[in-house]
Amino acid sequence: MISKQELQQQIAEAAREVRATNPMAGSITNTVTINFVANAQIAVGGSAAMVYLPDEGEFLANAGNATYINVGTLLPIYEKTLPRTAKALHDAGKRWVLDPVAIGIGDMRTKLLAQFKDYKPTIIRGNASEIIALANLWGVAGDGGASQVRGVDSTQAVDEARTAAVALARYTQGAVAVSGEVDLVTDGEAVAYSKGGSHFMTKITGSGCSLGGVCAVYATTAQTPFACAMAGVQVYNLAGARAEAQVDAPGSFQVAFLDQLYKATPEDIAANPFDYEEA
Amino acid sequence: MISKQELQQQIAEAAREVRATNPMAGSITNTVTINFVANAQIAVGGSAAMVYLPDEGEFLANAGNATYINVGTLLPIYEKTLPRTAKALHDAGKRWVLDPVAIGIGDMRTKLLAQFKDYKPTIIRGNASEIIALANLWGVAGDGGASQVRGVDSTQAVDEARTAAVALARYTQGAVAVSGEVDLVTDGEAVAYSKGGSHFMTKITGSGCSLGGVCAVYATTAQTPFACAMAGVQVYNLAGARAEAQVDAPGSFQVAFLDQLYKATPEDIAANPFDYEEA
Amino acid sequence: MISKQELQQQIAEAAREVRATNPMAGSITNTVTINFVANAQIAVGGSAAMVYLPDEGEFLANAGNATYINVGTLLPIYEKTLPRTAKALHDAGKRWVLDPVAIGIGDMRTKLLAQFKDYKPTIIRGNASEIIALANLWGVAGDGGASQVRGVDSTQAVDEARTAAVALARYTQGAVAVSGEVDLVTDGEAVAYSKGGSHFMTKITGSGCSLGGVCAVYATTAQTPFACAMAGVQVYNLAGARAEAQVDAPGSFQVAFLDQLYKATPEDIAANPFDYEEA
Fold first, then answer.
1. Would you say residue C171 has pLDDT above 90?
2. Which of C29, C32, C53 is the best mutation test for B, with the most CBs of B within 10 A?
3. Which of A97, B96, B112, B208 is the most exposed place for a label (fewest CB within 10 A)?
4. pLDDT tens digits for C197-246?
């Protein structure tokens, strides 16, 4: 595993490259937070484009360096769009970020998430319950433990998902980010615990979804999946903490948070505190 | 009918229970205001989850204590999703909130709203024109008067819908909330007129939809449908008035309004001024 | 061509009429920015209503004086909804605004945009790449030049689309607005270059979509398509410049921008600086 300092340099480099090149990361994502995802992607320096139809998903998959798939609010057409897009990404060797929102609700969601196993997402972003459930669904963790998903919220602590996250990352050879009070990010070899953030991030909708979209923006760069996932998690924890210092309620927080995503420098993002250890 | 003081205690209790238990209220709602609905539900202390597919609607219906159905922007799949979800709610004895947005536009909307008659929503939330039109569609008011719906806006005053609202509440044995400059809430026995709010609530989209979603959050509690509907209407009028005092334009109002939804205490919500009389 | 002063009077008149009559302009628009479109339409004095289904599109087409069609995030049902709505608008002699977002992505988008040629939108609003691509698709510009669409962003300057914009306006006998650092608006006879705005308008999602929706609101008035498109472009440049003066980041900008849309007077909108010349 690389040193913490090397990782920080890669994080800063991912952030710098995004600011310099304004890369597009297309998304297929839920309608609840789609606006917030787009605004967050733009705030960190990326460009957003969202679609629903199969051939449009394939188009975006090939047009960008990385794509974001969030299964939040499934539509009937997703039965075709999501597998075709994931396959196009896989076949073209393109990076993609998966957010397995609300895994366990409904037949199509389970079927789609099972299909994604073959297309190995570069980064998986979820809360503890979702990461455990995905590892169980894919059968990659010997004993991932029981998942307790309630709607879209996690009922479990981040560290309960450590085994599952490491197993998923080893399977995909990518990175996994588990969101919680402290965020866990792993590439299967190292585990980082990123600090900061704000309790207000659970008082608005879309903190998690938009983090997935921002990870996709960083995933367009030449840095490792681990560094790209960390760049997303770090800028979220940094902006969350800075925004919380300015406000006392969630409406204002959302505005201040987008502002701080925009203002965060690559150096600040890399310097946000995190612990770092072997997996 | 219970005393005003008893009603106020129930309103406060509904708000307290929500703050204490963070209950999930699932929604099938329109894409225009879906983000605002979720953020408002979270701001008052609830948890939000939105879906489109039939089996997912049934899942949420059974997973939560109350569900919100808003017919704002119908999709083709709603022809299956909405009746199946409403039936699941009815069969399980679960509470649900109906917002008959834009009743009268299109064949599917009329057909779906007609079907809902059998599944008796616990709370109906609409503007005056929508409430009159729904009472006419269901044939529950001897003379509900003529409804004048124009797109999604009401062209009629709240009191014109009093007869229709009382008749609907008697039919469903639940509560009906009519939104306007003063809000009328009834359980068919008593009528309350809740005051406050802001003219800016008509200068943003989603005041009504998100109120429906918030009523569903309160409807998860052990209080009566009338007290739950009143809790929603009261916190809206309180937060609206407080937000208006801080701003001079609608963009800022929306932010301040979410902040004030978050800050309102159960006591403040119960104490918001309202008139109270027999139906 | 009319004088600049006459044009300014017509712009002010369009804005005045909207403030006085609160006209509804229905929309079929993308889910990414649908909330922002509605809030912007309301902020300038209009009323918003969004639908997806074919008969609902026809209903709105006939219910309002003008309708907005934005092809941003196509759903399968749009294959029926959009042609039927556009045909209803054309047959009833109603005005409508087309935003050819992301033209070139996917088969359905191209097919729908090709069909719209027969239904002649009253106002076309797009970025330079989209306007050039539409003129090429419709074959109305002898040599519109090559379009370079990347996702939803333009890669070309506004003046590169002048020939295409003028040709489109002559074909539709309506107006065309090309968004960029300076905005070009033409009716095929005159060309106006509207100034102001803010670099933050490219740091949020929906500046363009919501401008299309606001143009539809002004298009409900008795003024010419050119004056209505100019009213929209002018209020955007005015509000953008005023909002930028108040903020230093995009989250705050979006709030301040909606506030300034609301505060702009008809006189201010007409007086926003623009150059004006023969086409």
1. yes
2. C53
3. B112
4. 999 999 999 999 999 999 999 999 999 999 999 999 999 999 999 999 99
User: Are residues B53 and A74, on separate chains, in Cβ contact within 8 Å?
Assistant: yes
Selection from A53, A56, A47, A49 nearest residue A24 by Cα:
A47
| Closest-CA distance of chain C to residue A17, Å | 17
Residue C175 token pair: 């107006």
Cα–Cα distance measured from residue A24 to residue A94, given in angstroms and rounded to the nearest whole number: 13
Instruction: Give tens-digit pLDDT for B115-138.
Output: 999 999 999 999 999 999 999 999
Are the C-beta atoms of C274 and C234 separated by less than 8 Å? yes
Residues of chain B found within 8 Å of residue C261, distances taken between Cβ atoms: 251
The beta-carbon neighbor of A55 closest among C106, C153, C249 is C106
Mean pLDDT of A67-73: 97
Residue B3 exposed, middle or buried by CB count within 10 Å (0-12, 13-18, 19+): exposed
Domain that holds residue A182: 4-278
Q: Report the domain count for chain A.
A: 1
Is B115 inside any structural domain? yes
- Region C153-171 average pLDDT: 89
Q: From chain C, which residues contact A within 8 Å (Cβ)?
A: 30-33, 35-36, 72-76, 102, 105-109, 150-153, 203-206, 248-252, 254-255
pLDDT category at A156 given cuts 50, 70, 90 is confident
Residue B122 lies in a domain: yes
| Helical packing angle, A34-43 and A250-263, nearest 10° | 30
Name the residue in chain B with its Cα closest to that of A36. Answer: B35
Q: Could you tell me if residue B45 is left (phi over 0), alpha (psi between -120 and 50 degrees) or otherwise beta?
A: left
Q: Which of C35, C47, C259 sits opposite B252 (nearest CB)?
A: C259
Question: Which residue out of A31, A70, A71, A247 would a mutagenesis test of the B interface target, given it has the greatest number of B Cβ atoms within 10 Å?
Answer: A31
Close Cβ partners of C258 (under 8 Å, ≥ 6 residues apart): B249, B250, B251, B254, C39, C40, C43
Judge contact between A96 and A124, C-beta under 8 A: no
Contact between chains at B39 and A105 (C-beta distance less than 8 A): no
**Position with higher pLDDT, B151 vs C123:** C123
Tokens, residue C71: 């092809």
Residue in chain A closest to C35 (alpha carbons) equals A35
| DSSP-derived secondary structure letter, A121 | -
Look at the pTM and tell me if it is higher than 0.90.
Answer: yes
Residue contact B39–A152, C-beta within 8 A:
no
Task: Pull the structure tokens for residue B202.
Answer: 């008509």
CB-side neighbour CA atoms (13 Å) of A151: 23
Q: Which residue has the tokens 């009319």?
A: C2
- Regarding an ipTM greater than 0.85, the answer is yes
Residues of A at the C interface, defined by Cβ within 8 angstroms: 24, 26, 31, 34-35, 38-39, 42-43, 47-53, 55-56, 59-60, 63-64, 75-77, 254-263
Interchain proximity A108–B53, CB inside 8 Å: yes
CA B26 to chain CA centroid, nearest Å: 14
Touching A (3+ Cβ pairs <8 A), the chains are B, C
Radius of gyration (Cα) for chain B, nearest Å?
Answer: 17
Q: What is the CATH number of the domain that holds B38?
A: 3.40.1190.20
Consecutive 10-residue averages of pLDDT for chain B (279 residues): 97 98 98 98 98 98 97 97 98 98 96 98 97 97 63 74 97 98 97 98 98 98 98 98 98 98 98 97
